[in-house]
């Protein structure tokens, strides 16, 4: 029993694995994957991509760096901190990066999960009114995501959806605006619509209705204007008629 415990203890000290660090970058950017505390007793190390593809191997004794041709001109290695810098990132660079450090009696492994994204574009926010009610349907679209929400007058339903890849789309109300927000871990864009426009689409039910005699206030105003115009025309006609008669009388004399 004691022998088994010693064997288990020995095996557990051979490999030390830390947790994976999540790293997010935009397409075209650079990223530096670095060790927090470089091991002074390091002999050799390897940087590996997705468990099988070697990025580089480093032999400390000879200060020899063996870099994969696939990463030539895109990778920088620091032989003091053992950090790896990847330049001009593309989305296919996303994945698991591991640095395996070979010590005298054990191995030390540090992992990084890199995710490379395109910057998001501004979302498209549209709305459509129900002709039979005050309900308005809002639709927010961005990337491969779409969400719809209902608004009644100026009260709107807030919604959010997130894709497995970390792209998020949300509809929310902020102050006097409806905000459609499109984001991923490295960027975000928004499109807004003012709530005020819905007041014109749907008058408030709390508004006080005018008395029956004033319900046609616009028409009464038009009638008054018409009467004033007719009166003015009659007066002008009378003045012109009197003037013409005076001229005729002078001509006959």
UniProtKB/TrEMBL annotation:
SUPFAM superfamilies: Immunoglobulin
Annotated signal peptide: 1-20
InterPro entries in UniProt: CD2/SLAM_rcpt, Ig-like_dom_sf, Ig-like_fold, Ig_V-set
Domain Immunoglobulin V-set: residue ranges: 21-101
Cell compartment(s), UniProt: Membrane
Principal place of residence: membrane
Keyword annotations of the record: Glycoprotein, Membrane, Signal, Transmembrane, Transmembrane helix
GO terms under cellular component: membrane
Transmembrane segments annotated in the record for this chain: 226-244
Protein name as annotated: SLAM family member 7-like
Organism: Astyanax mexicanus (Blind cave fish)
Gene this protein is translated from: SLAMF9
């Amino acid at each position: 029993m004691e022998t088994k415990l010693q064997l288990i203890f020995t095996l557990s000290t051979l490999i030390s694995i830390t947790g994976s660090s999540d790293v997010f970058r935009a397409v075209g950017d650079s990223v530096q994957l670095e060790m927090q505390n470089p091991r002074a007793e390091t002999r050799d190390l390897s940087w590996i991509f997705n468990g099988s593809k070697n990025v580089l191997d480093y032999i400390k004794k000879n200060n020899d760096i063996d870099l994969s041709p696939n990463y030539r001109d895109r990778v920088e290695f620091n032989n003091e901190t053992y950090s790896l810098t990847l330049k001009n990132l593309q989305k296919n660079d996303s994945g698991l990066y591991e640095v395996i450090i070979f010590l005298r009696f054990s191995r030390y492994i540090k992992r990084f999960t890199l995710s490379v994204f395109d910057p998001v574009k501004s979302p498209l926010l549209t709305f459509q009114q129900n002709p039979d009610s005050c309900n308005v349907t809002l639709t927010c679209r961005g990337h491969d995501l779409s969400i719809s929400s209902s608004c009644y007058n100026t009260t709107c339903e807030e919604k959010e959806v997130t894709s497995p890849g970390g792209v998020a789309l949300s509809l929310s109300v902020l102050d006097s605006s409806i905000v459609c927000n499109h984001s991923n871990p490295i960027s975000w864009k928004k499109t807004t619509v003012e709530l005020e426009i819905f007041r014109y689409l749907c008058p408030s039910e709390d508004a006080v209705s005018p008395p029956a005699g004033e319900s046609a206030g616009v028409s009464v105003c038009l009638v008054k204007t018409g009467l004033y115009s007719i009166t003015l025309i009659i007066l002008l006609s009378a003045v012109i008629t009197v003037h013409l008669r005076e001229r005729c009388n002078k001509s006959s004399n």
